[in-house]
Design brief:
By secondary structure, the chain is of the alpha/beta class. It folds into 3 domains: 131 residues, 3-Layer(aba) Sandwich (Rossmann fold); 60 residues, Helicase, Ruva Protein, domain 3 (Orthogonal Bundle), CATH 1.10.8; 116 residues, Up-down Bundle (Zinc Finger, Delta Prime, domain 3), CATH 1.20.272. The strands form 2 sheets. A 5-stranded parallel sheet has the order 2-3-4-1-5, sandwiched between helices. The protein has a two-stranded parallel ribbon with strand order 6-7. Helix 8 runs antiparallel to helix 9. It is elongated and about 70 Å long. The N and C termini lie far apart (61 Å).
């Protein structure tokens, strides 16, 4: 029976698994007619959608994004509820050309689990497939290195062990960011097929420039910040620089707020960065207020808006934001 339940905290891996299933099931020529997505549907809508007959020429994939149906402690219909009974009966007697995918995205670091005792969960386990997608912790180095190797293989390239380790140490355990860095590395090494230590170090050098810019801006050293900004203009578009600075400032803001009630190890679990990096940022932010960080974030947002609306030329807009 083509019924699936994907659940867990690792959003990036869930997204990839969902896309893989779409590619497997849906005929791209009939995608608009062969694919339906429901977000937290009520049971009557869900049952009615599952009873839809597929087009005569292909499959129908129905995606249901829901936490209410599966999470422990949530308010949900009992297994004896008439609509729940009908839902389970419908799943057990699906048309062979209908594929059903339940996606239960768990908020990161909440420790929440799907309720395996539910009749709905048991039914999917019996007739279909349940797959969990755990989020990696920053200290799971072996598992993360294995994941990096798998991703490089999927991109038809290779990476040396020391290069993978340097990439991990400089990027952290956030899979979406790691994948983004691998895409950049693939482009930068072309036509080569193997990422080496020197390639990753060259990428990290660019990161070092952006961090020098961010640190100088935070400290109020505008002349140093402008100098580093001009170096970055030679390599990257202002919108890309703004996006990276926004990520850094958001991280600082989160660390600043959470450091009032949590220690560095607790924060590191939330942000998925090494405890040492968190401690360095806490020290760096000691004399910086939350209000100042919000001000920096707002300046970046305004600069981005002025660029995208054409109000100011891109480089000038960002330079004014840094110098103001």
């Amino acid at each position: 029976m083509p019924v699936y339940l994907y659940w867990g905290e690792e959003e990036f891996n869930i997204e990839n698994a969902v896309q893989d299933l779409r590619n497997k099931v849906i005929d791209p020529n009939w995608a608009l007619l062969s694919h339906k997505v429901l977000n937290e549907p009520e049971l009557p809508e869900l049952v009615a959608t599952l009873q839809t007959l597929p087009m005569a020429f292909g499959n129908l994939l129905i995606e249901i994004k829901t936490t209410s149906l599966f999470l422990r402690g949530g308010k949900k219909a009992s297994s004896s509820d008439k609509l729940m009974v009908k839902l389970i009966d419908t799943l057990e007697n699906l048309n062979d050309n209908i594929y059903v995918l339940f996606v239960c995205q768990i908020p990161r670091d909440t420790g929440k689990k799907i309720d395996s005792a539910l009749k709905l969960t048991k039914t999917i386990q019996k007739i279909g497939k349940i797959e969990e997608f755990n989020a990696f912790k920053f200290y799971q180095e072996k598992e993360l290195l294995s994941w990096i190797n798998q991703r490089t293989s999927s991109k038809e390239i290779k990476i040396t062990q020391d290069a993978a380790l340097i990439l991990l140490q400089n990027t952290g355990s956030e899979l979406r960011r790691l994948d983004s860095e691998l895409k950049k590395l693939k482009l930068s090494i072309s036509p080569k097929k193997t990422i080496g230590k020197e390639d990753v170090l060259a990428l990290c050098a660019t990161h070092e420039n952006i961090f020098l810019l961010a640190d100088s801006w935070l400290q109020g050293n505008k002349s140093k910040a402008i100098l580093e900004l001009h170096k970055l203009f030679e390599k990257d578009h202002p919108l890309k620089i703004i996006a990276t600075l926004q990520t850094i400032v958001r991280r600082w803001l989160k660390i600043k707020i959470e450091s009032k009630t949590k220690n560095s190890f607790e924060i590191s679990k939330t942000i998925n960065l090494h405890k040492f990096v968190i401690e360095q940022d806490i020290k760096k932010l000691q004399s910086t207020s939350v209000e100042k960080l919000i001000e920096l974030r707002n300046k970046l947002t305004q600069a981005e808006y002025k660029i995208k609306t054409g109000e100011l030329e891109a480089e000038m807009s960002l330079e004014l934001a840094i110098a103001s």
